[in-house]
Amino acid sequence: MWMYLGLLAALFLGLHNLCKKHAVQGNEVFPVLLGTIGSGFLVLLPFFIGSLYFPEYTQKIGFHITPISWETHGFIFIKSMIMTTSWVLAYQALKHLPITIVTPIRSAGPFFTFIGAILIYQEKPNFLQWIGFFLIIFSVLLYSKIGKKEGINFKRNKWIFAIIGATFLGASSGLYDKFLIQSLELNPQTLQFWFCSYTVLILLGILSVTWFPNAQKRKEFKWRWTIIAVGILLQAADYFYFRALQDPDALIMLLSAIKRSQILIAVVIGGLVFKEKNKRKKLVPLLGIMLGVFLILYS
């Protein structure tokens, strides 16, 4: 069951990436990021209020936000710091690179997760799962070859390094999620609400220095409906992802790989919407990724 929850997370992540590309194009990155996380926070806020005043009802519908200790708050704050840094790097890269290049590089995240899952959690996939996992990684590497045809030098372009850094931090957060969900026994909505709360506070701190005092930057910011859509879609994706992690049999390295099937939406729909180059050639590694996901599910 956790594998199919991972596929649902991938679906919402793919739509999230499309909206995110539209939201950041020619726009100020930090206020866009604040708007997306703030939108997610506002979606979860009624459940928090309901958990305080109508706990029986929120428990009945499965969206009760439970009280947590200060120590647990500290652990969630660490996740917020990791992901804020990752998002800032990713949004800046997405602003300057094609979505059909950014998304596949982000898909290398399972490689970093693979290392951590083996070393930290001693996960042991079976033979078909190994094949599927490495097929996904190999397919992602093919995108770097295609990227050169779009005038993107993977060794000199600083935005490539930014997206690689964002990918590493995102993978680290994924490993950390397993600790938060399984070891601390946090339910998805509790983790999501407090994560959004602390991330909003961190972003407000950044914006108070980099954006609010600058009148020119404030004028350059463009509000778009996709900013709200990004926040809502991200919360939907995270919910299904955390639900999958609640399963004690869930393997974080495989769940991370399954989420990369979001590339189907990014490459096919994103390539058409944003009219990016080499869409047909990008379908070749895309098929490799989809085959890898199929092997993992079939196993």
Describe the protein in words.
The chain is mainly alpha-helical. The protein is built from 14 helices and no strands. Helix content is 80%, strand content 0%. The longest helix is centred in the first third of the chain and has 27 residues, at 70-96. The chain is globular. Helix 2 (29-53) crosses helix 3 (55-61) and helix 4 packs antiparallel against helix 8 (158-183). It has one domain (2-298). The chain has helices at 2-24, 29-53, 55-61, 70-96, 99-106, 109-120, 127-148, 158-183, 188-210, 215-220, 225-245, 252-258, 263-273, 279-298.
Task: Describe the structure concisely for a colleague.
The protein contains 14 helices and no strands.
> What is Rg?
19 Å
Helical amount: over 70%
Number of strands: 0
Main beta sheet, described? Answer: none
From N to C, what is the helix and strand string? HHHHHHHHHHHHHH
Q: How many domain modules? A: 1
Strand content: under 5%
Gap from first CA to last CA:
13 Å
Structural class: mainly alpha
Give the overall average pLDDT.
84
Number of helices: 14
Which residue ranges are poorly predicted, with pLDDT under 50 across at least 5 consecutive positions? none
Overall shape:
globular
